C-alpha cells in the first residue's frame, strides 16, 4: 500500500515538472566521453513581468485618517534661578525713533515782470528764517505805468524793514517804511483840451517808523495785560509842503472773574506846513471802560474823553459802548455800537485818497458826533461766513474834494460845515467751497445828507467789490476781481470862491456827474517747481476810460506778467 502511494506521488511530480518545462526550449550538449552524467542547459526567452491597468492602481476609498503624527524631540536645559517676588512696575526705557524730516521753509522771493502800458514791476522779500522767537525781514517794490494821455505816467517805490522778538513775558515789534509816489497832473478837460499843455510833476515822499510792546497772553484770571506803541512819520511833496506826526498809544487791562477793567489812551501830535499855511492840530484821548464777557455775552461800556489843543481847542466827551450777543454759537451773533470820536485830518491821509492835491490845503479836525451801528454776523457752516451792518452817523466838518478854480487839474479840500448825516448798509460774504475755490464779496450803500453843501462831492452811493480764487491744479491758480461804483458828483466853480471858504454859493457853481464804472480784472499763477513760478495779470478787461475824479481818466486795458523765484 505504501509502495503504491510512493509510485503515484513520483509520477505526479514528474508530470508537473515536465508540463512546466514545455515553455522553455531544451538543448542537449555532449560532454567529454569520460563524464557519465548528462545535463540540460535552459535558455530563457523573456523574463516574466506582470502589468496592471492604470485604473487598478487607484484606491477607491482612501483612508483619510491615515496620517502619521510627527513628534519632535526636544532637549531641555533647566536653569536654577531664584524667584523674585517684586510687584513694582519697571521703568520703561525710551526707544530712539528716527529723526523727523525737517520741512524746508521758503522765506524769500524775488519777482519781476513787464507788459503793456509800459508796465514795469519788481518786488523782493527777505526773511531771516523760521525762528519763532525772532523774526526780521525787508521788502522792496516798484511799479510804474504810462497811459495814452499826455504825461499820464505814475511810478511808486516801497522799501521797508521789520522785526519781532518774543520773550517769556512780552512781544516787541518794530518796523520802518519808506514810500515814494511820482506822478503828473495830467488832468484833461475834453471841452478845453488846450488848457493843460505841459502837466506839472508831483513827488510824494513818506518815511514812517513804529515800535510796539505787548505782554503775552496768560490764563491767569488775575493777570494784568498791557500794550504800548509809538508811531511817527515825516511827509513831504515837491512844492515845499511838509508834515510830521507822532502818535503815542497806551493800554492797560485787569481781569477780575468775568469782568475787565481797562484804560486806553493816546496822544497825537501833528504839524502841517506849506508856503502860506502852518497848522498844528493835536489830540489827547482817554478811554476808561468796564467789560463783561460771559456765556456768549460781551459788553464794553465806557466813555471817550477827547481834548483838542494847538490850532484848535475844545473838550469833548462821547459814549463808547459796544455789545455782542451770541444767539447760536458759531452761526449767529448780534452786535451793536454807540460811540463818538474826533479824527485828525492830515495831508498824508488826503493824498492817499487823492494824490492830485493842490498846495496850501486847509487842515482841520473832523468830529464824529454820534455813530450808531448794529448788525449780525456768523458762519453758515465750514467755509461760509457773513456779516451785515447798518450804521447812522452825524459828522461835523466832513472833508470833501473840489477842483481848484484857477488850476482845474488840482484839488482843494473844503469842509461841509455843520452836521451832515450818513445812513449806510454794509455787507460781507465769504464762501470757500474747498481748498480749490474761494470767493469773497463786499457791498456798501451810503446815503449822504450834506449839512451846507448841495452834494457830498466824489462820494458814490453804491460800491461793490468781489474777488475769486480757483486752484485748477496744484500748479495752476486763476484769480478774478470786479469793482463796481455808482455815479458821483463833482463841483465846478463858475467864479472864484471866497477865501477863506465857509459857505457855498450855489449860484456860482455847477454840478458835474462822474459816471459810474465796472472794472474787471483777471490773473493766473503757474507753479513751475518749488523755486520758480510764472504769473500774469489783466486790468480793466472792458477797456473803459472811466474816472474816479473829474478830468482824470484811468489807463485802459493793460496786461503784464513775469517770473518769480523763491529761495
Task: Explain what the structure shows.
This protein is mainly beta. Helix content is 5%, strand content 56%. It is built from three helices and 28 strands. It has helices at 2-20, 54-57, 347-353; strands spanning 25-28, 40-43, 109-115, 119-127, 134-146, 153-166, 170-184, 201-215, 224-236, 242-256, 259-273, 278-294, 297-310, 314-328, 332-343, 366-379, 384-403, 411-434, 437-449, 462-471, 476-485, 488-493, 509-514, 517-527, 532-539, 547-549, 552-553, 558-566. The chain has a 22-stranded antiparallel β-barrel. Strands 1-2 form a two-stranded antiparallel sheet. A hairpin with a 4-residue loop joins strand 20 and strand 21. The radius of gyration is 50 Å and the shape is elongated. Residues 17-37 have low confidence and may be disordered.
Which features characterize this protein?
567 residues; mainly beta; 22-stranded antiparallel beta barrel; two-stranded antiparallel ribbon; 3 helices; elongated
Describe what is shown at a glance.
By secondary structure, the protein is mostly beta strands.
* Beta-strand residue percentage: over 45%
Uncertain spans: 17-37
**Sheet bearing the most strands, described?**
22 strands, antiparallel, barrel
Radius of gyration: 50 Å
Number of helices: 3
Assembly state of the chains shown: single chain
Structural class: mainly beta
Q: Percent of residues in helical segments?
A: under 10%
Strand tally, please?
28
Q: Distance N terminus to C terminus? A: 131 Å
Mean pLDDT: 87
Shape: elongated
